[in-house]
Write a structure and sequence with these properties.
The complex is a heterodimer of chains A (317) and B (254). By secondary structure, chain A is of the alpha/beta class. Chain A has ten helices and 14 strands. Chain A has two domains: 219 residues, P-loop containing nucleotide triphosphate hydrolases (Rossmann fold, 3-Layer(aba) Sandwich); 69 residues, 2-Layer Sandwich (Alpha-Beta Plaits). Chain B is an all-alpha fold and 254 residues long. The chains are: A alpha/beta (317), B mainly alpha (254). The interface between A and B is medium-sized, with 34 and 30 residues. The structure holds adenosine-5'-triphosphate and magnesium ion (MG). Magnesium ion binds next to helix 1 of chain A.
Chain lengths: 317, 254
């Protein structure tokens, strides 16, 4: 067995109660592995930003411990923070300053020596080089967001938090940012991102964590999660009414609708098993002379999984 | 261990912010000071020739300088820390490897630097209106730096405390300016009728104005030792309050 490498971030029993009594984080345990892209999924108010704030220093934690780079963050915050970057959810900077100066300021603030070449590299990689002399307030919303990313990258962090990096960004820019994040992974940067776009997690993440009401409900490899919870659903519209489920289908997870006009398959595991079984069901139907007039098939996405999980948790609570 | 690069980044960033508003921040105090010289120096100075052997126009120079130092140091430092809270840019300071030392040296250092530049400009402006000499120039410089630093610290506390623009301006406008006017800028305490001469001694600004006046003319209403001691005590209190603010994250971290 390979030795399990030490996590880059290790959160234990993290609880945050805001003044007023709201429990935004409820005994959260989370381990982030070096070099991975981790997507934190959760509805509005789940506690995602609070969790990031607790690690990055905006939020005072009520209890629990955070280890970063193998050291207690509460004690070694100075050295740890130099290695952490943050792109916040909300825009926040000196709007009257210019792009290049702001990005240079961020590098200095995080204790790095000035490096014009590195700043140029960052600005170019985010297509901001042409705008370097502009006042930030004159940029479009999407460009402002890029400035935030440039500021977070200016000190070459090893661990990067992206709090909804693509909120309010158009599709093209979003794909562009995904490429950026992919490039960061190539460089060995560990990325933790929160998102409402499940497509984003599906596209980018190695692992996914689902959080709701301050509790982490599930953490798993994205593929494993798809396998475990992924489903194929297929509906066969029948030409003629059937009185009961045909015997040839008894070994498949198929049901017959009450009116006897639709066969419904629900099964598979996100690995392609479902698709194969749907094909087998179709063949069986044809071979037994049962005519169907339409076939509808879809794979459940992370979104379905997520909604499902949160709902089930809601019922359980 | 202090993170000097971060400190320098904050300091430079603040100075560059000042540079953007250089016109307003220099023209306005120069204009105000000139007006005081015209109104008080010329109009009243025509009637009062000398205070304690010092020409009246020259007598008011340290007080006017103090007036500007107090209000500018306080408001510059308070804006410096309030603006990031207001715009949301505070997230970056909070997530940066900077603690109380870096933040103070950066923000308060920059505000104090700006105050020193202003002081030089005001003293130059004053030369256009009156003849004055400075008896203890080195002492004057140290004292000005001390006051600029103390009130920049006070401004920093105000900026952290304030949750709106009115609160930000309340203390300089409602407390500092009136106390400075009543603090012996334009008169010597002995010129006040009893019991006002005693009551005036309860005004802390009296000690600041007189401390600075002593460095100029070698004489003042209160002893320089008391002035210096009070200024240092005030500085120490502000540093202590800020240390507590950082330890607890009050009004900075949620
Ligand atoms: N400063 C604060 N004071 C009091 N309550 C807060 C504060 N910040 C957040 N909360 C509350 O804590 C809970 C979690 O908020 P948080 O911002 O962490 O959620 P989120 O998962 O980031 O949501 P979103 O997807 O909308 O960004 C919410 O109920 C929110 O109202
Ligand atoms: Mg959020």
């Amino acid at each position: 067995m390979e030795p399990i490498p030490q996590p880059i971030l290790d959160i234990r029993g993290l609880t945050k109660v805001y003044p007023g009594g709201l429990k935004a984080l409820d005994s959260v345990d989370l381990e982030i592995r070096k070099g991975e892209i981790f997507a934190l999924l959760g509805p509005n108010g789940a506690g995602k930003t609070t969790l990031i704030g607790a690690v990055c220093g905006m939020v005072r934690v009520s209890s629990g411990t955070i280890n970063a780079f193998g050291e207690d963050l509460a004690r070694h915050w100075r050295s740890a923070r130099q290695r952490i970057g943050l792109v916040p959810q909300e825009l926040g900077f000196d709007m009257f300053d210019t792009v290049e100066r702001q990005v240079g300021y961020s590098r200095g603030l995080f204790g790095r020596a000035p490096d014009a070449n590195r700043i140029e590299e960052v600005l170019r990689s985010l297509s901001l080089w042409d705008k370097r002399g502009e006042e930030i307030r004159k940029l479009s919303g999407g460009m402002k967001r890029r400035v935030l990313i440039a500021k977070a990258l200016a000190h070459d962090p090893e661990l990067l938090f992206l709090d909804e990096p693509t909120a309010g960004v158009d599709v093209e820019l979003r794909r562009d940012m995904w490429r950026q994040i992919g490039a960061l992974r190539e460089q060995g940067v560990t990325v933790i991102l929160t998102t409402h776009y499940l497509e984003e997690a599906e596209e980018m993440a190695d692992r996914v964590g689902v959080i709701d009401k301050g509790r982490v409900l599930l953490v798993d490899e994205k593929d494993a999660m798809m396998r475990r919870l992924g489903r194929t659903e297929a509906h066969f519209a029948l030409a003629a009414q059937l009185p009961e489920l045909p015997a040839v289908l008894r070994d498949y997870p198929v049901t017959l609708s009450d009116d006897g006009r639709t066969l419904c398959y629900r099964g598979g595991d996100g690995t392609g098993k479902g698709k194969a079984e749907v094909a087998a069901v179709a063949t069986a139907l044809v071979q037994s002379g049962i005519v169907f007039t339409a076939l509808d098939q879809k794979e459940s996405s992370l979104e379905d999984i997520f909604v499902d999980l949160v709902e089930r948790q809601g019922l359980a609570a | 261990m202090i993170n000097w690069r971060s400190t320098l980044a904050i300091y430079r960033n603040e100075l560059s912010r000042f540079r953007r508003t250089v016109f307003g921040s220099i023209v306005s105090p120069v204009l105000t000071t000139s007006l005081y010289f015209i109104v008080f120096g010329a109009a009243i100075g025509g009637r009062i020739n000398e205070v304690g052997g010092v020409d009246y126009g020259a007598f008011i120079v340290p007080g006017l300088l103090m007036l500007t130092l107090l209000s500018e140091s306080t408001s510059n430092a308070s804006f410096g820390i309030y603006m990031p809270k207001f715009t949301g840019a505070i997230y970056e300071l909070l997530s940066a490897p900077v603690g109380v030392a870096e933040t103070l040296l950066g923000f308060v250092g920059a505000a104090a630097t700006k105050s020193l530049i202003l002081a030089a400009i005001i003293l130059t402006t004053a030369m256009l209106f009156v003849d004055y000499t400075i008896a203890h120039p080195l002492f004057a410089l140290v004292y000005i730096m001390l006051v600029a630093a103390s009130f920049s610290l006070l401004g920093f506390i105000l900026g952290v405390w304030a949750e709106g623009f009115e609160k930000l301006q309340m203390v300089p406008l409602l407390i500092l300016t009136p106390l400075t006017f009543l603090g012996g800028t334009f008169y010597s305490i002995d010129m006040l009728p009893s019991p006002w001469d005693k009551i005036a001694l309860a005004n802390p600004i009296v000690y600041l104005v007189n401390g600075l006046r002593w460095t100029f003319y070698g004489q003042s209403d209160v002893s320089i030792g008391v002035s210096l001691g009070l200024t240092l005590a005030f500085l120490a209190i502000c540093v202590a309050v800020i240390a507590v603010i950082f330890r607890t994250g009050w009004r900075l971290r949620s």
